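user: can you give me the structure for this one chain? tokens are fine.
assistant: on it. calling the predictor now.
[tool input]
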Amino acid sequence: MILNVDDHEPGRYARTRLLQQAGYEVADAASGNEALELITALRPSLVLLDVNLPDMSGLEVCRRIKSDADLSSILVLQVSASAITSEDRVGALDNGADAYLIEPVDSDVLLATVRALLRVREAEEKLAKANKALQETNALLIRRNEDLQRFAYAASHDLQEPLRTISNFTGLLERRYAGSLDSEADQILTYIQQGATRMGTLIQGLLMYERASQEHGDWTAVDLTQVLTWTLKDLEKSITESKTTITFDPLSTVSGNSVLLSQLLQNLIHNGLKYHKPGKPARIHISYQNKTPDMVEIGVSDNGIGIPAKYQEVIFAPFQRLHGRISGFWDRIGHLSTNR
């Protein structure tokens, strides 16, 4: 829908016919007040607006359109045969007009300008819809993530109590009936205890993962040298007993969370201590490199048993392990049942 506003009837008729022949639905207005009434009633996509009208200036009509929140998205193409200076054009465009043409206007130029304006508006509307859909999707993802975090926290706490019961009563059975059961029963109790311990580790990991997701925004300036000093102090006994040699590059201050960075370093260094080659003291090195002005790379390398190539893609997913897998427990139980 295009509204053609011009008090000069022959010119208005000619433009209406031109636009209709180009496939547009067109309504006419001969004054500013009539134009504003039709704009409110019809909500046209574009207003072809003459500057000189009998009751008010076309500039004022344009200003009212653009100052109304419900109408401001309507395109305004102003035309004039008298206001033809650069100052007139600049004034009209600054007043809110989307384009300005000086009469006489070639029909092809008029149609091309109308098509161009409508293409831009169509693109803007598609972008606005896409942005709205993206915002709705983001809002949904945020709600889902919050729900998941609440569930993870609640489930982790709720699971700890029955797990603690299983572990306690299994330990009681082991102590009370030690030597009274056959070797297979003793082994089954051991497997149950190992499974309960593994499940407890997974629950603690889930709680830690949920806590990390809550704390990721609490970043401050972190002295990595201090963080590493704390971490090595926590692991001092294991380092001494395993005769591990630990070296590190000069470290600096980074933006992050000191608790999470310490936990990360502790986990990686502990892996190097735990999975070293038999009979060979572990050597662990912490490297530090500036990759870009906004990013540093901290590496933890060791001379341990390594990670098989087939597991290198999955090992860094949450809760993945290569050793002590819970599935091994069920394999052993199946083996005992088959023997029996």
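assistant: here you go. The CA atoms of residues 126 and 132 lie 10 Å apart. The first helix runs from residue 9 to 21.
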